[in-house]
Amino acid sequence: MTARILVVDDIPANVKLLEARLLAEYFDVLTAENGFQALDICNSTQVDLVLLDIMMPGMDGFEVCERLKASPKTAHIPVVMVTALDQPSDRVRGLKAGADDFLTKPVNDLQLISRVKSLMRLKTLSDELRVRAETARRFGMDDVAREADERIEEGAQVLLVDGRGTSQERIIKALKPIATVTAISDPQAALFDAAEANYDLVIVNSNFDDYDPLRLCSQLRSLERTRFIPVLLVTEQGADEMIVRALDLGVNDYIVRPLDPNELLARSLTQVRRKRYHDRLRTSLQQTIEMAVIDPLTGLNNRRYLDNHMKTLFGRAMARGRALSVCMTDIDRFKSINDTWGHDAGDEVLKQLANRIRAAVRGADLACRFGGEEFVVVMPDTDAEAATGIAERLRIAIETEPFVLPMQGRQITVTASMGIATLTPQVQSPEQLLKQADQALYEAKHGGRNRVVAAAA
User: Which of these, 32, 268, 332, 356, could form a disulfide with 415 (CB 3.0-4.6 Å)?
Assistant: First the structure.
């Protein structure tokens, strides 16, 4: 795993020690001797993770972390505080400043490398989602992002998997200010519940007498429904081997007993916020994908989707020797509708026509807006006779039921012309099939409109 790591410490010996350990794992290492240098480096070059000493002259690690997390340019960089301080209050202060984790001096090699690799996996996912979300913003989806931002501070839903009632009560009490906690003692029942419900965080306590908690952590990461739910492991002091294995399995964070309620609250809140941030990015990504293939006015697939999916349907029909037909539809005298009633009325006609196309075609058919007032329906396993029958039903549905123009308070009659083309041995490409349908549509237009014409075989 390659990554660029910035080590920040005012003591050269500490810098050299961490640098040597990281270089041995083939990481690219940058160094800074104070907080000001660290901020300059993070703002001027790509940094994937910061190992940050707390006790430094001029600007301590807490302030450096706060500044990094306050800047949109550097807020996504994971920060691990490396410190001799080991009081829960110091960890809580660091978490509130935005730190992702802590390593206590002298640094344990296994925990150092495991934590760095774990955070790098998380950052890789974050970076990919952020890049794609930027595309969503360019598509004008700022409203989606703002709506998701509003959820970040809502009360969380937390699943606690804990074998003992007394510790369940303590954890529920500690998280009461930020979360509704569902406590389950049976790990397998908890796994099923996590897959069915919508949790922001799963806390797994390692206090089971006859069950390996890492098995549940592994299962949570294996299931599609739970793969992205943050997992916080509660473990014993000194359980380094379990912690390292947990991080390798994809556990997001851990906390050691005896639990400090404030640290538990801060770590849980950090994970909930991160999960909701990633949810927001995934929502933006999903809607970006939809925007790329869906016509926003009619809700049908667009020309881009048709061009790609048509190749698949064409290739499948050719390989299997099956029928494939295309119906191209064009609204008659659409310009006069816009000229007479306005473009809002024209848009309303297009939307209502799309609804009638949906009602007329079958589930396996592909309906798309081809452009302007033209629509295409691709019909797999459909010969020319059946395709003509479907097109005729659509033509009648368009002609016989008036189109309602709510803003104008009127109803108007609309007709459409249609051209049918069917796959034959002479057709060598999807483009040729569409061209034949377009030629048949042209004949329908020039033959008097409001009719279906099938291309000659």
Answer: 332
Residue with tokens 């970076």: 127
Task: Look at residue 27 and tell me if it is in a domain.
Answer: yes
Which residues are known catalytic residues? 373
DSSP string, 130-163: HHHHHHHHHTT-HHHHHHHHHHTTSPEEEEEE-S
CA gap 253, 267 in Å, rounded: 8
SS3 assignment, position 17: helix
Among 244, 226, 143, 224, which residue's Cα sits nearest to residue 187? 226
d(CA 284, CA 294): 15
* 21-41 residue pLDDT tens: 999 988 999 999 999 999 999
Q: Which two tokens stand for residue 344?
A: 């809002």
Q: Under a CB-based contact definition with an 8 Å cutoff, are residues 153 and 309 in contact?
A: no
For the chain, helix, strand, coil in percent to 5 are 50, 20, 30
Burial label for 89, CB within 10 Å (0-12, 13-18, 19+), is exposed
pTM: 0.58
Do 229 and 317 belong together in one domain?
no
Domain, as residue range, for 257: 116-124+136-288
CATH code of residue 151: 3.40.50.2300
Instruction: Tell whether the torsion through CA atoms of 72, 74, 79 and 84 is positive or negative.
Output: negative
Supply the pLDDT for residue 122: 75
Q: Residue 143 pLDDT > 50, yes or no?
A: no
Taking a C-beta distance cutoff of 8 angstroms, is the pair 454, 447 a contact? Answer: no
Residue 232 one-letter amino acid: L
Report pLDDT digits (tens) over 169-212: 999 999 998 899 999 999 999 999 999 999 999 999 999 988 99
Q: 58-67, 131-140, 240-249, 323-332: lowest mean pLDDT where?
A: 131-140
Give the number of other CB atoms < 10 A from CB of residue 262.
Answer: 16
Strand partners, 5: 29, 49
| Domain contains 130 | no
Closest CA to 125 of 230, 242, 266, 233: 230
- Statement to judge: residues 275 and 347 lie in one domain: no
